[in-house]
Specification:
heterodimer, A: ABC transporter involved in vitamin B12 uptake, BtuC, two-stranded antiparallel ribbon, 18 helices, 76% helix, B: alpha/beta, six-stranded mixed sheet, four-stranded antiparallel sheet, binds adenosine-5'-diphosphate, binds magnesium ion
């Protein structure tokens, strides 16, 4: 137990996290509940600290004969799931399971799918090209409003609307990227942060076009060969299709010369440039593709809800999607899917704690950065 | 035949004249060494030639084309490649991937090609792998092609940097202290490798401190001190040049 005591001494500052969480919660929950929250978190931190110093690792070693083998098993599991036959089974399960669920679960699954696509898109910018984009939600909003406005005013159908949403979001990204991607990395983060806020403020105040805070309602539903998609199940299958296409496209792009060039830029931009990679053009490409994808999800969102308002496009959404990418493991497709699933599902399971989501994410992110900076499934630097 | 020519090339950092009015000419299939004490401006000279720094003054011509102020990736595409004094490999990638990255400017597959994975794209990808393996064999790293770059020994990392630079298919290769940290055997192998590269038709500018290497391999030697070219000539002439001896050993140091 002495190593545990040492761990507490060495990582004592981490206990500030549960302490702060408790203090922040107290005004909303009362002292008793706040104490409970702080204690649970403290236990979590203790566990994590112990893991880091090896007490529990050694325990796990004897139990599972080596954490290395466990990691290997995890990697094999992912490989197995990604292999064609099991991927097909998995997909079949995803098609069938919602048939036996109620509409609430179907909606949660649909929401998960939307975030999977968004997070996979953002991963191109953050995980592949290594740029911090803090205003990703702006392009999601641009897609949603493009469809909302063009369908309610000009009667644009859903499928051309999706193309239009993607195109407008891509164009916006192109213009912003052309002017900001030549700047140093940190400026890009600040510009995108500002961009996200400006977009929301414009949506809120340009009443004649966006309907201001009231938003736009009665957005037409998509139709497919005469059949109008309207039930949660319809939309679930539509987003499942989008997820499958996105995963397929991401795998191919990441494995191509373009994907390799992105990783080179992330690892060492100067060396990448010196090896003949036009780093500006490739960063712009990642930014535009990711934004177009966000635009597509925006169109889907507008069509599913039949209503959009600025409230759906807050800074919190950008942070949430960023958390999914970081939590799951930057650059790893299964990791990011896991991150999106966890961050959508967990708050649904702990509905009563809705108000503390932000605090929870904050703590989770801090702990991740301390204990597992490469993400849950990210390989980090390969050994 | 003339390949590279700098005229009056200068790079100042505020008041510091890191490179000052350097004229240099490199012919095809020649090995030119650049020597000089630490801080003489050798690396800065490389950074100007490869476009990483914008020169304060002067011009750089490569194959009869003015390349002054061009972006580094465009200069690389024209045929100048380099290695870095402080190794800058893509540490998380395999050796083969490192060399394949260098083929980026010689290949074409775009986003739609990558998505559709047409036969043209697949052939291009396969050729990139073959070429990378060829180059790794050429520098003697083919057995480690699947190894992660960061896990290589120091000497192997330097060789991989050379392999990666060769992957861009250069006409002129700039090597910044490639023998630093190598043992005598590795240094000997490196000299053989540099000669082999030259024999394949690539001109080389070599920054090196090890005088045995410089004297043994160079067609011509250029000496920089405080950013200024203080001597230039055949290795034999340089060895006896008093200005060089002073710059290296201090004024009062006896001949040896
Ligand atoms: N980016 C920079 N900013 C300011 N000073 C620099 C920079 N790069 C190099 N220098 C200075 O220029 C001089 C020459 O450096 P360098 O070219 O690295 O010398 P060498 O490679 O010959 O040892 C040094 O005094 C160095 O401190
Ligand atoms: Mg140097």
């Amino acid at each position: 137990m002495s190593s545990l005591r040492q761990a507490i001494k060495r990582h004592g500052s981490f206990f500030l996290v549960p302490l702060w969480a408790g203090i922040l919660c107290a005004p909303f929950t009362g002292i008793a509940a706040a104490t409970r929250i702080a204690l649970v978190l403290a236990a979590g931190v203790l566990l994590a600290a112990a893991l880091r110093t090896g007490t529990i690792t050694r325990l796990a070693h004897t139990l599972f004969s080596g954490s290395a083998r466990m990691q290997g098993a995890g990697r094999r599991l992912v490989a197995l799931l990604a292999a064609p036959p099991s991927a097909f089974l998995f997909l079949a399960a995803l098609c069938v399971i919602p048939l036996f669920q109620n509409d609430y679960y179907r909606d949660v699954l649909t929401l998960t799918g939307m975030y999977v696509v968004l997070a996979l898109g953002l991963n191109l910018v953050v995980g592949q090209a290594g740029l911090l984009n803090l205003g990703y939600v702006a392009f999601y909003a641009v897609g949603a409003y493009t469809y909302a406005i063009s369908s309610t005013r000009f009667g644009l159908p859903f499928w051309p609307g999706m193309a239009a949403g993607a195109a407008v979001a891509a164009l916006a990204a192109l213009l912003i990227g052309l002017s900001t991607l030549k700047l140093r990395g940190d400026y890009f983060a600040i510009v995108t942060l500002g961009l996200g806020e400006i977009t929301r403020i414009v949506l809120n105040n340009w009443d004649s076009v966006t309907g201001g805070p009231n938003g736009i309602s009665r957005i037409p539903r998509p139709s497919l060969a005469g059949y109008v998609l309207k039930t949660p199940l319809d939309f679930y299958y539509l987003i499942l299709l989008m997820v499958v296409i996105t995963v397929f496209a991401m795998r191919r792009i990441i494995a191509s010369r373009i994907g390799r060039a992105w990783i080179a830029i992330r690892e060492d931009e100067v060396a990448a440039e010196a090896m003949g990679i036009n780093t500006f053009k490739l960063k712009l490409l990642a930014f535009v593709i990711a934004s177009a994808l966000a635009g597509c999800v925006g169109v889907f969102f507008a069509a599913k809800m039949a209503f959009v308002s600025p409230e759906s496009f807050t800074f919190f959404e950008s942070v949430l999607i960023l958390c999914m990418v970081v939590l799951g493991g930057m650059g790893s497709i299964p990791g990011i899917i896991l991150g999106a699933v966890l961050l959508v599902m967990l708050p649904e399971i702990f509905r009563d704690f809705q108000d503390y989501r932000m605090i929870g994410f904050g703590i989770a992110l801090v702990l991740m950065m301390i204990f597992r900076p490469q993400g849950l499934m990210g390989a980090g630097k390969r050994q | 035949m003339l390949l590279l020519e700098t005229k009056n090339l200068s790079k100042h950092f505020g008041g510091l004249k890191a490179v000052e009015a350097v004229d240099m000419r490199v012919e095809r299939e020649r090995i030119v060494s650049v020597i000089g004490p630490n801080g003489a401006g050798k690396t800065t000279f490389f950074n100007c030639v490869t476009g990483i720094y914008q020169p304060t003054q002067g011009t750089i011509r490569f194959q009869d084309r003015d390349v002054t102020g061009m972006a580094p990736h465009d200069i690389t595409a024209l045929g100048i490649a380099r290695t870095f004094q402080n190794i800058r490999l893509f540490g998380g990638m395999t050796c083969r991937e490192n060399v394949m990255i260098a083929a980026h400017c010689r290949t074409k597959a775009g986003v739609f090609g990558a998505l559709a994975r047409t036969s043209r794209v697949r052939n291009e990808e396969r050729d990139m792998v073959y070429r990378a393996v060829d180059i790794l064999r050429f520098v003697g790293l083919d057995e480690k092609q699947e190894g992660i770059a960061a896990n290589l020994s120091y000497g192997d990392q330097r060789r991989l940097e050379i392999a990666r630079a060769l992957g861009t298919e250069p006409h002129l290769l700039l090597l910044d202290e490639p023998a630093a940290g190598m043992n005598p055997l590795e240094t000997q192998l490196l000299m053989d490798l540099i000669r082999k590269i030259r024999d394949n038709g690539v001109a080389i500018i070599l920054i090196e401190h090890d005088m045995k290497v410089v004297m043994g391999i160079s067609d011509r030697v250029v000496v920089l001190d405080h950013g200024v070219k203080i001597a230039e000539g055949h290795p034999r002439e340089i060895r006896e040049d008093t200005a060089v001896i002073e710059a290296y050993l201090g004024k009062d140091h006896p001949h040896h």
